[in-house]
Amino acid sequence: MTAAGKRTITIRLKRSKIACNPDQRATINGLGLKKLEQERTLENTPAVRGMIKKVLHLVEVVSETR
């Protein structure tokens, strides 16, 4: 676990959200990704994992701390 004691997951936007449907674009925005190759480290919760699963073809999971 990290210093704060929370699990984290780091994701990177690998593909453009231009050709996505509006729901997927909103999910990418909700994850906090705006530009290609941008990385975000988020708390590893079921809600975040569900959002990642919805747009897995657009993002890459870089690392996951347990």
Structure explained in plain terms:
The chain is an alpha+beta fold and 66 residues long. The protein has a single domain (8-65), classed as Ribosomal Protein L30, Chain: A (2-Layer Sandwich). Helices cover 27% and strands 27% of the residues. The chain is built from two helices and three strands. It has helices at 22-30, 46-54, and strands at residues 8-13, 39-43, 59-65. A three-stranded antiparallel β-sheet has the order 2-1-3, with no helix packed on it. The model has no long low-confidence stretch (mean pLDDT 91).
Helix and strand composition category: alpha+beta
Across the major sheet, the strand order is 2-1-3
What is the number of helical segments per DSSP (H or I, 4+ residues)? Answer: 2
User: Which CATH class applies here?
Assistant: Alpha Beta
Write the element-wise H/E pattern from the N-terminal end onward.
Answer: EHEHE
Specify the CATH architecture.
2-Layer Sandwich
> How would you characterize the largest beta sheet?
3 strands, antiparallel
Specify the overall morphology. globular
| Strand runs, count | 3
Query: Remind me, CATH topology?
Result: Ribosomal Protein L30, Chain: A
Feature tags:
single chain; 66 residues; alpha+beta; Ribosomal Protein L30, Chain: A; three-stranded antiparallel beta sheet; 2 helices; 3 strands; 27% helix
